[in-house]
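Render this sequence as a predicted structure.
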Amino acid sequence: MDASANTPQLLRRTNLRAVLEVLRAAPSVTGTDLINATGLTRATVIAVCDDLIARGWARETDSPRIDRQKGRPARRFEFNESAGYVLGLDVGIATVRVLVADLAGAVVGESEARFPRHGGEPEQRRRVVTQAVDAALEDAGISSAAVLCAGMGIAAQVTGAGEVAPGQDVAPMFDLGLSSIFSDSRGWPLLVENDAKLAALAERWRGVGAGEDNLAVILAGERLGSGIIESGHLLHGASGGTGAMGALDLVEGVGNEDGIAKLARLWGSAALKEGHNGRIRELVGPGTNRASARLVFEAADAGDPVAAEILDRIARRMARVLALVSSFFDPRLIVIGGAVAASATALLPAMTRELDRYVVKPPRVAVSALGTMLVPTGAVRLALDYVETHLLDLVPEPRRE
């Protein structure tokens, strides 16, 4: 093939992308603004903007400014954030959450559903996920045709090819064939990623780690898992295992992947079985020895010395995990996220104090404020990254009222 034959087309795509990048970074711009930002001629800028408007990626807005050369209002252009939408899914063992966002990342719809008790069979789980997606689309008032891409986080290791890594006990709960199902029936790609890695994307995008290029996020609910961003790039490793916590059974004082919520529940229940009769017992009641993590944290906040000792044990154990992550990846910031994040604030003083014992220059430690939206927000970011990379190859489907 004659390379010169493609030169005009390549130049056109280059100009389109250059103008798009400026439009995405500003509320609205004039032709002059675009000329200054891109170095393109006025004729090229106007032609590119008209092309983007025809494609659906841009729109023209009213302008109060007067073009001094022509004596009429200057044309203003802006990115059309509603030219398409993305989905962010968080598929856990017990729950699926779905966010619908426009191309500016604003959430316009959402849904949540629970899987059958004990997880459910693959067909049941597929049905729950697809129904949750449909509910989120209905909440947003859009059709599947308006979706350009979806990102999905799962509580399992994922390879660089977006597949569930083999050999995991939880694999049957997440290897559901949803990528091909959504591609065939809905016509849009589904990108699969580990939930902790998506949590890292979310924190760097819209969390306490916003803009931080060296960041670690640890999901610390039932099981520990981490996502690592180094020099602005999400780390995966040869088979997606970067940040996995399976080797914690080799770490003295830790011993396994149990997370904060699980430890609080197990140790609180053990205290009740051993005859503890303080605030934990008052909150749990006399009929059971099963303490929830939430009640253990509440009891500690109320001054229960047994609950306080449990939290101190958890904090000291977590400090060893933080030291391990810090030694291996050297982040500036480690964020504790997951379902237990709101309660984990109580652990920060002891964790940071203990961390100082293990690390010469310890990172800052913070707690995520994104709550249950942490992973689906990261999934939205993953989908938006795909759309931004492939924007000129996608065909937008404008929202229909």
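Summary. The chain has three domains: 3-79, 85-203+375-393, 208-369. The chain has a mean pLDDT of 91.
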